Structure formats: structure tokens, C-alpha cells
Amino acid sequence: MREPLKREESAAFGVPKSPRHLGVHAIDVAYNDSPVPNSPFRVPVTEGCDSSRVRAFGPGLDGGIANKPNKFTVETRNAGTGGLGLAVEGPSEAKITCKDNKDGSCLVEYVPYEPGTYDVIITYGGQQIRGSPFKVPVTDTVDPTKVKCLGQGLGNNVRANVPQSFTVDTSKAGAAPLNVSVVGPKGKPRKANIRDNHDGTYTVSYIPAMTGRYTILIKYGGDEIPYSPYRVRALPTGDASKCTVTVSIGGHGL
């Protein structure tokens, strides 16, 4: 196939043509119908790569947990042949592993060691893919088994119509949402009032509206903590206005 040469601003010429097939191509170059030295030139053509066609997705790009494997998938099947580059930058180093799925995709795992915001950088053929660097928030490891509760509101001296409270200590359990619900004698659940003390502890309060058995369900990070659900019984509340006081001195009442 003959292709005209396009003269550039310098004395060089360019060929505005891209090869359509892989393999070794022979290029004949002539000037004034005479072959130039070393023509024809044999040029191997290999498959190129397009980083814009690489796709990355998975929970490990939306958020992560410190000291735990966080996973995502990279698909390169429609992007040609190129080298895949992976890096995780942030408050700490991160261990990265990559498993080839043999289908044009790979599974990536990384383990950061400190909470914070990390940049997950993905390149293909030396170019960053679409969306890279990915900003990933990493939180502490959550362990609901390390949550502790204490206080009168979980004890045996709960009185109906009297405000009750107890403390939930999450200081060693990592950062996660706390949820407390109280189910009364009629089986209707109600959310308790939760106050963050900003020291890793929470004060939980509720008012039992009637006497009877109450079930207190406590979840941290979506999972129940040890000893949950707690079961307490609300006892009748005494009325001081109906009490009489009798004082006797020497056997004589006043």
C-alpha cells in the first residue's frame, strides 16, 4: 500500500497512518522514485494500550479498615497490552498483593496499618487510569467484643417512670456507630438517648414507662456486643406522699 508522506516544518517527513494488524511490517521508502538506503524497513508492530479503558471497582476503593485486607478489582481486558502499576500512599505503608484472575482482570488486596485518608494509585502502560488516584478513607479496626457496659440502668434496681442510665465504653473497640434499642413489656422497641462523651465512652439513658421486663439490645458497628441483649425488670415506683412516719419514744407514739 502506497502512502503519501506529509512534510513537516523541518526537512523530515511523516506518515499519517496507523497499522491495523500485529506483526512485522515492511516499509518501503523512496525519494523521487528511488529507494532510500536500508529500505525496506522491517518494523514489528505490537498491541498498544489505552489506560482510559481500564476499570477499577470494589469496596476497597470506597473505604478501608486498618490492619485488614481491603479488596478491589482491576479490569484490563479491553485496554490492550500494558504494565499494571499499583501504589497506596497515606499515613502508613500498605502491603499490596495482586492476583491474576486469568480473564483480563486481577484482584488487588492492600493492608494499611493506620487510619486516615489514602491515595490508591493505579496506572496502566505508565498512565493513570480514570479515577486515579482514588481517595480512600481508612478507619480503625472495629472489634465489638471489646465494648464494655456498666451502670445502674442495666442492674436490678430499675424503677418504672424513673430515668435510668448506663455507660458504654468503646475506647478499645475502634470507631463505629453505636445503636441501642429498648424493648418494653408490650414488645415495642424504642431508641435510647445516646450522648457521646468524646472520650471513647457514651452515656445511654432511657425511661421505663411501666413495670415489667425490658430487653436492651446494644450493637456496635452493626454487631451485638458481649452480653447483649441485657434483660432488666422495672419495679414499681414508691409514692413518698403516701408514706406515713411514726416515731415512738419510750413506747409512746407521736
Defining traits:
254 residues, mainly beta, Immunoglobulin-like, 2 domains, five-stranded mixed sheet, 26 strands, 0% helix, rod-shaped
Describe the structure.
This protein has strands spanning 6-7, 13-14, 23-27, 30-31, 34-35, 41-45, 55-57, 64-65, 70-75, 84-89, 94-100, 105-112, 116-124, 127-128, 134-139, 148-150, 164-169, 178-183, 189-191, 193-196, 201-206, 212-220, 223-224, 230-234, 248-249, 252-253. A hairpin with a 2-residue loop joins strand 13 (116-124) and strand 14 (127-128). The chain contains no helices and 26 strands. The mean pLDDT is 88. The protein has 2 domains: 51-139, Immunoglobulin-like (Sandwich), CATH 2.60.40; 144-234, Immunoglobulin-like, CATH 2.60.40.10. 0% of the residues lie in helices and 45% in strands. InterPro entries: Filamin, Filamin/ABP280_repeat-like, Filamin/ABP280_rpt, Ig-like_fold, Ig_E-set.
CATH architecture of the largest domain: Sandwich
Mean pLDDT: 88
Class by SSE composition: mainly beta
Count up the helices: 0
Distance between the termini: 128 Å
Q: Tell me the helix content.
A: under 10%
Pfam families: Filamin
GO molecular function: actin filament binding
Family: Belongs to the filamin family.
Filamin repeats: 1-45, 46-138, 139-234
